[in-house]
Amino acid sequence: MERFTLLLEQEFKCLGHHVEVWRPKAFFGAKAKCTTQGTGKWLGYIDKWLLFPLILRAQSLWAKDVHYHICDHSNSPYLAHLPQERASITCHDVLAIRGALGYADAHCPASRFGKILQFWILKRLLSAKKLACVSQLTMSQLQELANENESQNSRTVIYNSFNAEFSPLPRKEALSLLNEIGVDTTIPYILHVGSSLPRKNRGFLLKMVAELGERWSGHICYAGQPLDADLINEAKSLGLSQRVISVANPNHSTLVALYSICDAFIFPSYSEGFGWPVIEAQACGAPVLASDIPPMPEISGGAAIHAQPNDVAEFSNGFLYLKNPSIRRKIVEKGFENIKRFKPKIMAESYVSLFRT
Questions:
Q1: Contact 280, 262 (CB under 8 A)
Q2: What is the pLDDT of residues 259-318, one digit of tens each?
Q3: Coil vs helix vs strand at 170
Q4: Residue 18 burial (10 A CB sphere; 0-12, 13-18, 19+)
Q5: Residue 248 buriedness (CB in 10 A; 0-12 / 13-18 / 19+)
Q6: Which of 40, 136, 307, 330 would suit a FRET pair with 295, their CA atoms being 20 to 30 Å apart?
Q7: If one looks up domain 171-342 in CATH, what number appears?
Q8: In Å, how far are 130, 215, 226, 292, 353 from 269, measured between CA atoms?
């Protein structure tokens, strides 16, 4: 959520507000070689959950005319250490929370400790007097988990905005960038952007291309996390190893180039809180074929083909439908219209309105 935090800071300053970003500082964790596992992880927890709340309490005592906004719902326990009427929070999704509560459709299983942590996060999240959800789906799912006595709290939907510049890159420039990293641009490709989490459903693209058979002979490009063993083995079993491209952790220019000249952006995710890649692809002029599971249709604004993420034939037919030039042009034009909803200034002004309620 660092990019989201920095974006809010930048946009609030553009609106004329004084902004400071407060982050937990590493004291105990600073001596650990690794803070993601083992002893280092627990030392990091001491810094985050024991020391930083004390700092928040001390600093908030003298900052009487300040509004505090927590940029990530996983930090909701900090609400207990801030003045309730002058504090707000963004809820990006409730996937981990619902996963910890046993909702299979979240596709986010939790460990025993994870269940305790997510329960704690939910309890504090629901106590927020002012709360913004990034999609109507996230709002609805959060309300399902809320108690009646929390109905007086102010909750609203504020869509995420773009956190970087996305627009169509001239084809010649895009081809040059991709050729530099070894992508064979003489062969068309479909694109997936994201992590290797199971809920991203990356292997579905392999099934889709296998289903298309001789009707399409292009490549599959995965941008984001490197291919894992399961995906590599699945590609091999389907005879598609030579048609798979991996662009691990692309920089921004490369990502824009990939969006700009792909045959289509394919996003068959099982669960999302928002779905940034959908609007990024639209902004770069890529036709989008995505899961029909909320919030994808909400975020695409109807400017995409939506299909069931388990239905290979439906996705395959949707892709062939997009190959029609007039249909492709219409989807792309609607995408350009849809992205106007996600301008940073609109998001920042909406947050300022929330702070003033």
A1: no
A2: 999 999 999 999 999 999 999 999 999 999 999 999 999 999 999 999 999 999 999 999
A3: coil
A4: exposed
A5: exposed
A6: 330
A7: 3.40.50.2000
A8: 30, 24, 17, 9, 32
